[in-house]
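Q: What structure does this chain adopt?
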Amino acid sequence: MLQEDIEIRLIPYPKKLIRKEGFLKVESDGIIFFDEVESKNLAILLREVLSTYGGNYTIRSSNKKLNTFHIILKINSDIVSHAQGYKILIDDSVTMVGNDKAGLFYAVQTFKQLLRLFGFNLPKLVIEDYPDFVNRGIMIDISRDRIPKIETFEYIIEKLSEMKINQLQLYFEHTFAYTNHKEVWEGYSPLTHDEVIYLDKYCKERFIELVPNQNTFGHMSKWLVHRKYRALAEAPDGYVTPWGTKYEYPFSLSPAVHGSIKLVEELLDELLPLFESNQVNIGCDETFDLGVGKSKEICEKQGKAKVYFDFLMKIYKIAKKYKKSVMFWGDIIENHPEFIPLLPKDMIPMVWGYEYNHPFDKKCELYYNSGLSFYVCPGTSTWNTFIGRSDNAVKNIKSAVLNGKEFGAIGVLTTDWGDNGHVQHLPLSWIGYSYSAHLSWNTTDLDIQELLDAIDKHIFESKNIDFSLSKMIYELGTVYSKLPYTPNGTPFFYAFIYPESAIKNWDAEMLKQLEDVSDRIDEIKEKLASCTEEKILSICEQVINNISFAQIGLALIKLILKYEDIWKIPESEWNKLVEEFYKTIDEYKNIWNKYNRSGGLEESIFKLSRFLRVRQADLRGLIF
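A:
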């Protein structure tokens, strides 16, 4: 392909890019000029980037004109007026100007992507760029079994910073090594104090704020199942969920027990000082069991909303000892909007929802009218799916971001949860990460095919233009839509977890749709298996493993439809399915151990194998 024919695919795509006639031949030897001490480290970074393409550049603080090829780095808020903004001019030389240090860093990241596309023969152009949202974040769930290795974190952070993401949250329930609580995290390979400090520094060097995120109210099962903490539980023996099923374990801390707030205080006292960020996310979402157990009496007397609010304020006061701003998930208080005006002005509600039609407009308006700062929080739609719901993710993120912009949200935090074992491998998440990175920087929408091309080039770094890995992943994430709707997941995932209700409200006509979905997944799997490009073989391996799980889920649904329930499937057909499951599990273990810590693997497999236990012992209850 001729250089002139190469499309400029960048993540995020700039606000303004004007391509000029001709190309600039970047010399292999040259000088990088920086204008002040603040830009020196960015000159060093740029020199490292150029060296990967064979460049041999020196660094100087003066920009005195020489007859040597040169690149100029400047920080000048008079030239670039927007915070975090930058300009790039590629003509007879290269000049990059940032409003501030962050802006100049983002100029270097854009230049890095241009080098990846064009090498040392760059198109002449002008870029003027700045973000629509000051805060652009990703949240990664590390409490649903899977915790990446440090080198995997480093890879994720590098790619996120290249896409101009400037905030990262790692969601903790029980996966930090609290000094006095070994029984909670033992066996889960938790992050240690030193590792948090290391990641905090690693992020900061790449202009990413690592924000502590520790749930402190609901989602505390991993603590409350232990005898030492069980007395703190609202409902020690579980509760009936809002959707009518029985959750068999304790879930939330009880506001009626004094020891609950003491535990929260101990955890935050230990965790928060490790982070340089002046913010913290204290969680406090989905407290479904509040008022059904130990706090029932005070909830009946004061009202459940008041009891929730009062406990939230107690947690807030503890967090404020260390941080200026306190984030919390807004789902509970949104149901009681009369309490929103009572929130302190330095609390930041996180407005979350993960379906394409989530009412972000109405939710955002609640906080806009209150005068509070708030974030919008869509999701990657990867969890409970095996192969994603990519079209839902794109619509969900777009709705969140555009409504957030209209109603004055101060940030976007796109969440990547790991419900029921965190089975989706990392490559499934990059579409959500990348689209969020683009749209939170530049709310001018980007054609999804252009985004997928950019993911191939900059995230997967594939050079094979005839083998679009990202497009195959995207298409995999659309096949679920041919089947009956299941909220927050796909039917072929839920068949593993809830096989006894896998075909609820289905009929025999669904067999045709199942076959169509199976055929398309088979075709994509076959194409992925034909990959010969060494750079992306490991990515293909991960996606193929997720496809294998989806195929088993589809096969299980077909058998249940054919024989009416899981207990009537003949042994011969059942054994064939089980054999394929264990083969896929062996592949899953190998992939997990390449990129993630060992803790949590067995718990993930246990969740996935529930359909086996249902068949063998008629275990109809939920899983932990």
